[in-house]
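Before the break, one more example. Copy the sequence into your notebook; we will annotate it together after we see the structure.
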Amino acid sequence: MTNKFIDKSNLSTEIKELKNFDIKPADLQEAFDLLDCVAEELKKSLGVDIKADSLKLEGADLFDMIIKSGMSLIGSKKVKEAIFNCLGRSTYKQNERIDFVFFENEERRKYFIPVMIECIKVNLSPFLSGAVMKLKEYKIIK
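Here is what the structure looks like once it is written out:
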């Protein structure tokens, strides 16, 4: 049975094409806005409330949590707006801005979700690595 949605013959070419995207960190306020949107969506979609005394994720196993969180971020208009704001310094092939108009080209739409994920990673990992460092310091995680 073949999957009509994934053309495996072009997969390696498409993966190589992702290297042409240069996702740069946004300014601090734009990164904060993205952080707020992502946190709001995760809390809303998963019912996750991280409390200082427990740090437990309630109501979802790991797989469900990953699926629900990914879909809520992809489907959130606020998150997409925050991502486009964060992409202001990012480029494709060193000279083309990555913005809403960039994805108007139907052929480029396949790169939207990978670009979205990379933008979240680039802009939120500095905040999250600091949080992980503190959690390790207090021996909450190993």
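The first helix runs from residue 11 to 17. Residues 1-6, 50-60 have pLDDT under 50 and may be disordered. Try to locate both features in your own notes.
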